[in-house]
Amino acid sequence: MPINKKEKLVYTFLMVIFMAGAMTTYNVLLAEGFSAQSIQHAWLIFPVMFTIAFIIEWFIVAPIAFRAVGKLVKATDSEAKKGLTTALCFVLGMASLMSLVGTIIFGGFTANIPLLWFKAFCVNFPVAFILQVAIARPLIGSLFRSLFPIGTIVEVK
């Protein structure tokens, strides 16, 4: 895990690339079915979804999630509990907000937004949580530390 603000920025960038790419592809495949054209469509909209996801995570979800984690776990809790709680807080925030963004972008402003958002959240949350815990955190954590061993990204004071 990152240990300073610069490391958090790099880690967040890598994590959002992975999660936004995977979840964008997942949602497009759900909506359009599996085809070369749907994969192409997912990757064409990825830059927009990545940008929105990064802004939402960095400025909204991360501050709230870290505050919640601080209240939910103790220093003496197991690393597994800390990791699962952190993943849960981040995925709840990101799945909620990105499902809303996707609902508005692809469904427009209609009276059905609350229902469509809730449906999107229910479809996205389980996949995002499992993806985060089982694949993204181990993969991105390992990639991050192999690219940037502890102490290589230094805070400038």
Automatic annotation (TrEMBL):
Per the database entry, which stretches of residues form a coiled coil? none
Q: Which InterPro entries match?
A: DUF2798 (IPR021529)
Membrane-crossing ranges are 9-29, 41-66, 87-109, 115-136
User: Known Pfam families for this protein?
Assistant: DUF2798 (PF11391)
Sorted UniProt keywords: Membrane, Transmembrane, Transmembrane helix
Name assigned to this protein = DUF2798 domain-containing protein
List the lineage, top down: Bacteria, Pseudomonadati, Bacteroidota, Sphingobacteriia, Sphingobacteriales
